[in-house]
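Input:
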Amino acid sequence: MKKLIALFLFGVMSTALLTGCGSKEGENGTVYVYNWGEYIDPETLDMFEAETGIHVEYEEYETNEIMYPKVSTGSSSYDVVCPSDYMIQKMRENDLLAELNFDNMPNAKANIGAQYYEQSKAFDPENKYSVPYCWGTVGILYNKTMVTEPVESWSILWDEKYADNILMQDSVRDAFMVALKLKGYSMNTMDSAQLDEARDALIQQKPLVQAYVIDQVRDKMIGNEAALGVIYSGEAIYTQRENPDLEYVIPKEGTNVWIDSWVVLKNAPNKENAEKFIDFMCRPDIALMNFEYITYSTPNDAARDLIEDEDIRNSQIAFPDLSQYQGLETFSYLGEEGDEMYNDRWKEVKSQ
Amino acid sequence: MNKKALSAPYLFWSALFIIVPLCMVFYYGLTDKSGAFTLQNILAIARAEHAKALWQALLLSLGSTVLCLLLAYPLAMILCSMRTRQHSFLVLIFILPMWMNFLLRTFAWLTLLEKTGVVNNVLSFLGLPPLNIINTPSAIVLGMVYNFLPFMVLPIYNTLAKIDQNVIAAARDLGANGVQTFLRITLPLSVPGVISGITMVFVPALTTFVISTILGGSKILLIGNVIEQEFTQTGNWHLGSGLSIVLMMFIILNMVVSAVTDKDGEVNAL
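Output:
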């Protein structure tokens, strides 16, 4: 039997060795892309490789906070990354981003709606570093068979009726956003008294929370594991498709309106390929494929016009009329001091 | 050929992937952001949330080590008493799951234990009350026991298999009954295997952060989770390293205990 195991191990190791060496190089070089998990239609990557002859090395992360240390320490080199608003500001302030040349990216210039570039000015004042890829809101996804009362406020996540039936986001800014909005404060506050109040609210909520998760909110809500979950609007359309009992609302106290944008890193080894990649992603047909695959709202107006299903093209979840809502904000980077204020309090919540 | 030359690749490997990272952990752990020497990162273990996380981790890993031992010892004895062909098949069954990725196996438990998971579906079909252990410490202990049990079974099995059957026969011959033979012959002779099994279960259980994240729903913070978050999320490598040094002390303590009890070098032989 020992021989059998040895043989097996030998087989595994030699395959690993061969595939390791076989890392292919495109005829026109490579582009290293670092994106959110499940945030692209993989077919678009194959199409990009076929059309341009540039090989795509693709990696994924789960939160902005996981991505940042990997990019900033330079331990691995990437070309294109897709961070959110406040993280783009942090990366820009820490001199990690390269200026983009929009002349190389005609699709990015023509197809992305002007209002999204306007909104981007909150974190990229001169629109020099980022090209919007997806946007959306954060809200409550609930199961109509388990929650019969109307859901309109964040306060329902503190209702003891739903003990062990609530899913919270396992990332510090999102979790604090919920508590700060509930208390009527800004989600970018640096006031320690307000943050203490939010922390206490989260500690008070903890016994009611079934689990703190990120990507799993989607699968758990589809599988009827929980009644209420804090979720990104882009996941809402997908979950409704899989489980018609689910409904998405933007709470009345307001929420986070976010943009995830493509950026190119300052030390990017393949800057030209990176711009080609971003431009390809802004092509209407490609943006449409990605929208249909990941169901996150696209800022690509040309792609939105191509959506055949009228219900989705005018969906209030995918393309809400933001003027109807109060208290909408976009995260801003709070500096190291601010990060520490939030992180310390989040640890206190989690260790309870 | 010269033995030293043969060991060169191994020495190179250890230097590169054990000694160098260890030095880096000590460097980060003993300095602050400006690079000045400090003990703050190590003393930070006394902060309420860190101390609690360490205490939780110690509690859960000790619990699962004891459970593993209680399950593994009888199992190893059963394996030993079997005929060769049967037992190699059983050992294979034990090793087989280890060929599968550790993460996948842990996620499988999530699917099994969920509220609407496989186990609860079967229970409700049989008219039994549901099992609500997902996202609790029990689920974490279950995950640890499941994942680390083979590391307890195999060393114990190895020492038991090496016991000369003539020794047992002599004990019986001299009038010892089954219980006496076990307590005075088999058990003492298998201590090295037990100690090595304890180390191999306790150390990974103490440091795990994956099992507590997946099966604990991120609600129970173990010291492994705190360290992982300092590195991946907060980006405070100094604090993460400082806490790692504290954790290392517990592991070294465990190693010292096993080295003292294991005079024949059985642990290293494995």
